[in-house]
Amino acid sequence: MMMPPPAMPAAFQVEKPVPGPGMGDFSYVGIDAILEQMRRKAMKQGFELNIMVVGQSGLGKSTLMNTLFKSKVSRKSVQATSQEKIPKTIDIKSVSHDIEEKGVRMKLTVIDTPGFGDQINNENCWQPIMKFINAQYEQYLQEEININRKKRIPDSRVHCCIYFIPPTGHCLRPLDVEFMRRLSKVVNIVPVIAKADTLTLEERDFFKQKIREELRANGIDVYPQKEFDEDAEDRMINDKIREMIPFAVVGSDQEYQVNGRRLLGRKTKWGTIEVENIAHCEFAYLRDLLIRTHMENIKDITSSIHYEVYRVRRLNENNTAIAHEGEDTHWGD
Amino acid sequence: MDAIMLQEKLVERLLCPRVRTARRKEKQYVGFATLPNQVHRKSVKKGFDFTLMVAGESGMGKSTLVNSLFLTDLYKDRKLLNSEERINQTVEIIKHTVDIEEKGVKLKLTIVDTPGFGDAVNNNECWKPITDYIDQQFEQYFRDESGLNRKNIQDNRVHCCLYFIPPFGHGLRPVDVEFMKALHEKVNVVPLIAKADCLTPNEIKKLKDRVREEIERFGIKVYQFPECDSDEDEEFKQLDKELKECCPLAVIGSNTVVETRGQRVRGRLYPWGIVEVENQSHCDFVKLRNMLIRSHMHDLKDVTCDVHYENYRAQCIQDMTSKLTQDNRMESPIPILPLSTPDVETDRLIKMKDEELARMQEMLNKMQQQIHDGKDQ
């Protein structure tokens, strides 16, 4: 923190300092230094991010997570599984890692949901997931109303749910619609087209358009939600993003030599797909959205909107419960 | 404003999606190091707020110091009361709010003034209106925080209280001690030696030593500067050390500009010389300003939120729960959730209080018995 050299005040115009907020003497009070103080504190504390991945097995969820964070963060990397067996019911598995970049520390939690959509009868397969998300909200709420609460409540709330759409090329399946319809009300959903290397560019555009139409027709609000845009600047940027979702992604954690450079990609007989090349797939856009530009916004919407909705609902539940209890308890207003 | 640049770059890319961009540098870079910038950008948009309370007898230079600190003139139309009018005056709480903007950062500054403090003949409990005010702000925040609509909570909690100690005496007076003790667990108290231009450097040193020693002796918990991290640079550590050694800070304020050594500075003109407010060898004003605004403003707010407010809240809830066991009826300003399993913490507290009540009851019975026996004899 550098202190400015002893103030050499600029020339004054009158004997008595001109009254007026902050501009009195044309000198420097120094209130912008608070940004540096905040930043320093944030760096010390570190950040938390909880991402959930949902989709049928084999859509590349774990690989995509590894590609996003350029390290082995997914469930599969942590547990050695010789065979992938489809579990009978939906499992919710959380894996946490502490990662660091340029002095910024982050506790990243990847929540995997193996078994989703894999059964013969997939009715209500979103229920365990809803339950999990609400359980995290409940945990946070209990900590918040505690008498002696922690200085920094550990945040296990799901900030973002990436939903993997299989690249059929036609339209959304009923399962996709059902899931997204229900969950977009409690968590930020980011839909992606998985394994997009099976679609040509025209097929991809057509598919995306169909998906967008169906989302609109079913009233599904995915991230970035239109109603949460704060100002004109946000709206402009978010509108451009809304025109592009869902992102068509390809994941890979293997490097290949392309044109003298080592790149992440998938090598086939007809060419090598470069993951970070935007002419090949939209992975880079997804990464930029999730990590480089909108991460804070995603967390903010989770805590100030989704969580608040949950909280209000819980508190109202209590009030109606008390009203029916009668007896000794008498709640004032 | 890197985050804004990033946003713009994203927009650019979105506008021409098929253009191939060179990405050599970004090979191993995930990119979440921009997180502090994202937070930064959001805070700049929202702006900050800060509430500062000034307390001390009339004529200690409080208003002048506030004007000097924030380069404003908040007290333009103030009317000073004469002594007759002051006889019947009680301690008031007056708020002044001003919006300051500097380099794109907006600050909503609220100054809470306490005219009338310590001015009466009998100053018993003259700090009560002040502690009541602070508690009221805590209560307001508590209600807001526990309410249903938490979107736009106004934070009116007092973040820092500057207490002005007169330089004329030999250390702390009883009213100084009592005031600081009444407030040290509710707000960050920063004691200052006012009107330091009436003391020579030796006298200042002696007074500071004396005040420091008395603060320790009476167990007054003034605001402590947080320890420096080991990875801070040497200059910062040095400044921090100097700051700690200089407490309490001896300050001088001024509403006038004088010309000295070819420059125009804030100062006071005496026949025997000119006192410059921003001259570090004349007084500790610069240290105070740097501490309050440039280096510790965020920490002051944090300590208020994490320590003072939490203590208030814990106390409030405990009081409410003990009232609950006593008369089974409760006017609850905060919604309490139905807990499926009884809260271990609350149960334990209730049990503790019950045991305490039982013990006290036993003691009372014993005492009554003794008195009874004494009467018989």
From TrEMBL, chain A:
Alphabetized GO MF terms: GTP binding
Taxonomic lineage from the root: Eukaryota, Metazoa, Chordata, Craniata, Vertebrata
PROSITE patterns in the record: G_SEPTIN (PS51719)
UniProt keywords, alphabetically: Cell cycle, Cell division, Cytoplasm, Cytoskeleton, GTP-binding, Nucleotide-binding
Organism: Hucho hucho
Gene3D superfamilies hit by this protein: P-loop containing nucleotide triphosphate hydrolases
Entry-linked InterPro entries: G_SEPTIN_dom, P-loop_NTPase, Septin
An annotated GO cellular component: cytoskeleton
GO biological process: cell division
Domain Septin-type G: 45-317
Identification of the protein by name: Septin 9a
Domain of life the protein comes from: Eukaryota
Broad class of where this protein is predominantly found: cytoplasm
Short name of one Pfam family: Septin
Localization annotation: Cytoplasm, Cytoskeleton
Similarity remark: Belongs to the TRAFAC class TrmE-Era-EngA-EngB-Septin-like GTPase superfamily. Septin GTPase family.
Tagged with keyword Phosphoprotein: no
Annotated CDD domains: CDC_Septin
From TrEMBL, chain B:
Claim: Chloroplast is one of the keywords in the record: no
Source taxon at top rank: Eukaryota
GO molecular function, one term: GTP binding
Keyword Metal-binding listed: no
Family (UniProt): Belongs to the TRAFAC class TrmE-Era-EngA-EngB-Septin-like GTPase superfamily. Septin GTPase family.
Organism encoding this protein: Hucho hucho
Site location (Important for dimerization): 168
Alphabetized UniProt keyword annotations: Cell cycle, Cell division, Coiled coil, Cytoplasm, GTP-binding, Nucleotide-binding
Protein name: Septin
An individual GO BP term: cell division
